[in-house]
Amino acid sequence: ASEGLQTKRISSGGIELMKRYPWPGNVRELENLVRRLAALYSQDEISSEIIESELKTGERPVVPDGGALIPDDLSIGQAVEHFLQRYFASFAGELPPSGLYQRILAEVEYPLVLASMTATRGNQIKAAELLGLNRNTLRKKIRELGVNVYKSSRQP
Fold it and tell me: Could you state, in order of their start, the residue ranges of all structural domains in the chain?
């Protein structure tokens, strides 16, 4: 709520799943999950199914099953289509939890914002210009997506 996001409740089953999760990214990973849940799901109570889906999504490898890399010559659209085919297949004929559109947007926006911030060495004004966004819009996205912003000086 302090970041302009609606306050949510997490079901007791969801809390239990979160307690059992190893949190390899430590507190920052937990913070990012909570922000994502608040930003991406419209429900007042976040179910254990949503928590499970989000935790599994975070564990899924970036490469397809079998370790084959996605070809370099794929367009962004083709790569997203490839990902979505694997994503739907991972639910074994069932539908994923609602809110897929926002989850996919966040999955695309996160690396886009991160790459822009990295390319501009953490300069939010330059990154916003690069993305064609208003500086305040970029700041809001950085918070919502849980992008870590590090300013770095130029290397000699």
Answer: 1-59, 61-98, 99-156
